[in-house]
Amino acid sequence: MLTRIDHVGIAVASLEEAIPRYEAAFGLTVAHQETNEAQGVREAMLLVHKGDTGGSYVQLLEPIREDTPVGKFLAKKGPGIHHIAYGVGDIDSALAALTVAGFDLVNKTPVHGTAGSRIAFMHPKGVGGVLTELVEAPEGH
Amino acid sequence: MLTRIDHVGIAVASLEEAIPRYEAAFGLTVAHQETNEAQGVREAMLLVHKGDTGGSYVQLLEPIREDTPVGKFLAKKGPGIHHIAYGVGDIDSALAALTVAGFDLVNKTPVHGTAGSRIAFMHPKGVGGVLTELVEAPEGH
Q1: Which of A4, A128, A129 sits opposite B49 (nearest CB)?
Q2: Which residues on chain A place their C-beta less than 8 Å from a C-beta of chain B?
């Protein structure tokens, strides 16, 4: 079902502070940046590696308000890893299979993700406390 | 410097419980299992994808005692994502470059990692609260 580790989402207080740190440490560069109002974040995707099944990224997430999931995460736990996202070829099939297998989904149907991707989150309780996202890359990616 | 996301390390109370969950959810299978006394863990590597620069894995970590880093993490935060590990081609050069750039290292020289790899951890404070590991795969991998 999974084609790659698409990204690891990291909650940060400030993109302006976090991006230069990742550039300085690892020579990563920003491949994409956008604001996702529905998810309540400003985000930057830093490319780690482009493989045969797509890219793997560090995703830096800055909340746009305190009353957002990432804003609450930062307030409660401080900056750090927020979620992991796996690439899938067909997210509709993947969500159907997970539902049949008894896993609870935060998003029963895909929602808008980074750069036109289709994404869905699984409930952490079903996968050992890990907020887990599935990503179907946009056409042509 | 980075060649891939090598793995995401997930702290679990029990490998026997967590492995079947990841098998059921995503069809992942255990590629490798070992006990690392120095790191204080029993671990299982579940292959997500084998790419041109090496494998990407979910690493499930069960502490061998409570007074280990993962044991303390579990007691304090509960099960969840513990660290992220990036592949590098030459870990000695990578650690030298990070030191020159002013990043603090937990391991100033590489230690024994999964399946004969050479690894080193960076201090979380330098990279936005994220425990970050570098991995040089063993010869021939």
Answers
A1: A4
A2: 1-5, 8, 10, 12, 18, 21-22, 24-28, 48-49, 51-53, 56, 60, 77-81, 83-84, 86, 98, 101, 103, 122, 124, 126-130
Average pLDDT rounded to a whole number, residues A57-86 = 97
Residue A141 within a domain: no
A13 in a structural domain: yes
Domain-located, residue A63: yes
For B52, the domain range is 2-136
Neighbouring residues of B97: CB distance < 8 A, sequence distance ≥ 6: B1
Taking 70 as the threshold, does the pLDDT of residue B131 lie above it? yes
State mean pLDDT over B8-14.
Answer: 98
Q: What is the DSSP letter of A125?
A: G
Residue B8 sits in a domain of what CATH number?
Answer: 3.10.180.10
CA B38 to centroid of chain Cα atoms: 13
Contact at CB, A10 and B56, closer than 8 angstroms: no
Note whether B25 contacts A101, CB cutoff 8 Å: yes
Which band of pLDDT confidence, cut at 50, 70 and 90, is reported for residue A36? very high
The confidence score (pLDDT) of residue A141 equals 62
Report ipTM for this prediction. Answer: 0.95
Distances (CA, A) of A78 to A12, B51, B94, B104, B124: 8, 33, 27, 20, 12
Number of structural domains found in chain B: 1
B141 located within any domain:
no
